[in-house]
Design brief:
Helix content: 25-40%
Largest sheet: 6 strands, parallel
Structural class: alpha/beta
Mean pLDDT: 86
Shape: elongated
Low-confidence stretches: 51-60, 336-347
Length: 347
């Protein structure tokens, strides 16, 4: 039985061969409804463009596609830098695109990467939990997910829940009972797992969860300055704050310094530029984008040589870096009782 061809896709979706070609090549001029119909036909038939298959199987694809949420995010900016540095050493260039956390845009960008640009592989931070339309390309285009797992494909992640538990447990051990979770964005599985770690430690310590201490991101927006002032203006304000991601940490730290409240205990999930030179320097969960990026491209290169239908989840270890802001004791713990287990006596 012959594999499905471009004529089959055209017939299935009710469009011309030329229109299918424009969709496959990622041209923006195709109407969204038509594009969706063609992509559904490609997925249903398992169609793989011949040009892409020839290029990738022969190893002539000279670039890898990297698809992330946004380059404005400090974590993803560093991740792209790490991937590009390693790719160049392998003689590969890097094409970068963003999803804006939109599943339709994600689908268009992936189709453009694989069928249009004929990339040698894709590294992506997935928006959708499953991408069944990529199954048809599995043997010719390796795909590795980063930051968030992707069903049926290899993923490079960290243990968000366990890493968050480390930070919250430290706050509890230092006598904090009013601990804020700064930037709860339900769009991200990573943040949901970090929030789970936060609530687990509070429950284990017998500390009631106060919804007022949770900072919600609604529709992708959180005014960090206003939220910091709201939290610190509560009748019972937090004495410790956990920033759930690097972008939130920058917003929180900037706000604390602006209002002269930088002496409040805080820990960031993820490092950021200048975090180690502030006073106090910002303690953080070390989610190293360079380790993650290198692990992802390493696996991508392995899959190019030996395609596999048995996906694995690779968990990159994290650690809590003590710099000062996370070791500030709470009001229920006298400074003299702080032990060297947290980096020496508190000042």
């Amino acid at each position: 039985m012959r594999p499905p061809g471009i004529k089959d896709v055209a017939a299935q979706s009710g469009v011309s061969i030329k229109t299918v070609s424009r969709v496959v090549n990622g041209e923006a001029s195709v109407h969204p409804e038509t594009r969706s119909r063609v992509l559904e036909a490609i997925e249903r038939l398992g169609y793989v463009p011949n040009t892409a298959a020839r290029s990738l199987k022969s190893g002539t694809g000279g670039a890898i596609g990297v698809l992330i949420d946004s380059l404005a995010d400090p974590f993803f900016a560093s991740l792209v830098s790490a991937i590009e540095t390693r790719a160049l050493k392998e003689g590969l260039s890097v094409l970068v695109a963003s999803t804006g956390l939109d599943e339709g845009r994600e689908r268009d960008q992936l189709t453009s990467f694989i069928a249009g640009h004929q990339v040698a592989g894709v590294i992506l931070a997935p928006v959708a939990a499953e991408l069944p339309y990529l199954e048809a390309f599995r043997q010719v285009t390796p795909v590795v997910a980063v930051d968030r797992p992707l069903a049926a494909f290899d993923s490079v992640v960290v243990d968000d829940r366990a890493a968050t538990r480390l930070a919250i447990q430290q706050f509890v051990e230092l006598g904090h009972t009013r601990i804020a979770f700064y930037d709860r964005d339900e769009r991200f599985l990573t943040i949901r797992r970090r929030y789970q770690g936060y609530t687990e430690v509070l429950a284990e310590a017998g500390i009631a969860l106060d919804p007022a201490l949770v900072s919600w991101t609604i529709d992708g927006a959180l005014d960090y300055a206003a939220e910091t002032e709201r939290l610190l203006g509560l009748d019972e304000p937090p004495t410790a704050l956990f920033a759930s991601n690097a972008k939130a940490a920058i917003g929180l730290t900037t706000s604390l310094h602006r209002i002269g409240r930088e002496g409040i205990a805080h820990i960031a999930f993820g490092d950021f530029s200048l975090a180690d030179v502030l006073r106090p320097a910002v303690s953080c969960i070390n989610q190293d984008p360079f380790v993650i990026g290198n692990a992802a491209i390493e696996r991508l290169l392995e899959l190019r040589e030996s395609p596999s239908n048995e996906p694995r989840e690779w968990v990159v270890p994290t650690s809590l870096i003590q710099r000062g802001s996370g070791e500030i004791p709470g009001p229920t713990l006298a400074p003299t009782s702080t032990t060297s287990a947290l980096g020496g006596p508190a000042a």
